[in-house]
Every structure is written in structure tokens, then in C-alpha cells.
Specification:
Layout: E1 4-5, H1 10-20, E2 23-24, H2 27-33, E3 36-39, E4 42-43, H3 53-57, E5 64-67, E6 70-71
Parallel strand pairs: 1-2, 3-5, 4-6
Length: 73
């Protein structure tokens, strides 16, 4: 399985990305090429509405979103 990832703080995550064999890409590339997109961000003012109609329209036809995000506790 090919694993793509996008993170705005990728510099802090590169060791993990390399360790698991993932490929860091732009958000547009991730959306265009992924069969499944999982979201793992806390609900913050900066992330609220992060996945909107404009972003979803960039997704590969027939792909799925899995929302694993959580409200900040």
C-alpha cells in the first residue's frame, strides 16, 4: 500500500514519516491521488471547516473521507 501524508508541521514529523515509509506530499496531490483520506486534527479555530466543499471537490472520484478528528478536550 502506498501511504501519502500531508501535515502543515511536516518538519516535526519527518522522522516518523520516513520510519513508516510514507510519502509527504502537498494537500492537492494527496486529495487527487488517495482512495481514502483520513483526518486527524483537533477541532480548533484554525482547523474548523478545514474540509469544505472546495477541498472535497479536489478529491479523487470514488474516494472516501474518514474523520478521526476529535474536539479539543
Amino acid at each position: 500500500m502506498r501511504v501519502l501524508c500531508f501535515d502543515v508541521m511536516i518538519d516535526k514529523m519527518m522522522n516518523f514519516v520516513n520510519e513508516v515509509g510514507a510519502e509527504s506530499v502537498t494537500l492537492d496531490k494527496l486529495l487527487a491521488e488517495s482512495d481514502f483520506v483520513t483526518i486527524h486534527v483537533p477541532l480548533l479555530p484554525q482547523t474548523k471547516h478545514m474540509f469544505n466543499a472546495h477541498i472535497i471537490a479536489k478529491m479523487k472520484k470514488g474516494s472516501y473521507i474518514i474523520n478521526a478528528a476529535a474536539e479539543e478536550s
